[in-house]
Amino acid sequence: MADQQIDSVGVLVDRMNRSPRGNLRESVVDAMTTNETLWFRDTHPFRILEEIILPELLDNRTTAIKLWSAACSTGQEPYSISMIFDEYKRKHPAARSTLNIVATDISPTVLAAAKKAEYEMLAIGRGLSKERVDKYFIKSANDSWKVKPEFTKAVSFRSLNLMDSYQVLGKFDIVFCRNVLIYFSAEAKKDILSRLHGSLKPGGYLVLGASESLSGLPDKFDMVHCRPGIIYRAK
Predict the structure, then answer these.
(1) What local confidence, expressed as pLDDT, does residue 3 receive?
(2) What's this model's pTM, rounded to 2 decimal places?
(3) What phi and psi, each to the nearest 5 degrees, are found at residue 132?
(4) Residue 77 to residue 79: CA distance in whole angstroms
(5) Quick one: which H or E segment has residue 224?
(6) Statement: residue 1 has pLDDT above 90
(7) What structural domains does the chain harbor?
(8) pLDDT band (50, 70, 90) for residue 154
């Protein structure tokens, strides 16, 4: 509001409504969203993906696995998933399937950064081992590191508000929706979870954040205990 010399929230909302796709809306989204992220965040979901979900889904499968990384921020989660898939395929060369990752976020600024796939050393140091840096990144100018093209090509980015429809995205085998539902009301959270169920194929998996849980939807998901960690299978 100070940047735009707007003196009330009412005026701000009115201007946004009159220009819903303008620069003002993008500035407000960037100011309000929390874009905290790091590589292989919380560890357990990526271990579960490699040791439990992928072996089940890749068993005698030749068609591509489709995964949605919701609220992907600056791209660390979808690229971490791409690296996990590569590591799994190296250990299991008989696996013939490929992985298609759709990554979405509401913020155009973080999506632009995610698409660039280039990170400063400070960001690289948050969650990446030296072995993974050497394997998956190329050193670029200004002391930054760029994800190698063979690991970015599996990821496509698009703008999406989790309060909007997901139908345009299609159906998924796996959905990562982590550390974002904590910012919604209980009613909005239940609505989002119901629609996430609709975006999953029967038997598909939903992965939530470490501090998030699924409640009130026993007719839609089965809880799968992974010790440590919990994931949810769509009924």
Answers:
(1) 84
(2) 0.88
(3) -70, -35
(4) 5
(5) strand 221-225
(6) no
(7) 1-32 (no CATH), 44-234 (3.40.50.150)
(8) very high
- For 16-61, what is each residue's pLDDT tens digit? 888 766 688 777 777 777 766 889 998 999 999 999 999 999 988 9
Residues 6+ apart with CB under 8 A from 88: 50, 54, 58, 95
In this structure, the chain runs to a length of: 235
E strand spans, 71-220: 99-105, 118-120, 137-140, 144-147, 155-159, 172-177, 200-208
Identity of the amino acid at 113: A
19, 53 Cβ separation under 8 angstroms: no
Q: Tell the burial category of 170 from Cβ atoms under 10 Å away from its Cβ (0-12, 13-18, 19+).
A: exposed
Task: Give residue-wise pLDDT tens across range 72-89.
Answer: 999 999 999 999 999 999
DSSP for residue 232: E
Give the CA radius of gyration of the chain: 19
Number of other residues whose CB lies within 10 A of the CB of residue 16: 16
Taking the CA atoms of 85, 86, 88 and 92 in sequence, report the sign of the dihedral they define: positive
Q: What is the structure's pLDDT at 23?
A: 80
Strand order in the sheet with 99-105: 155-159, 99-105, 65-70, 172-177, 200-208, 230-234, 221-225
Tokens (6 digits) for 217: 């939807």
So what's the pLDDT on residue 68? 98
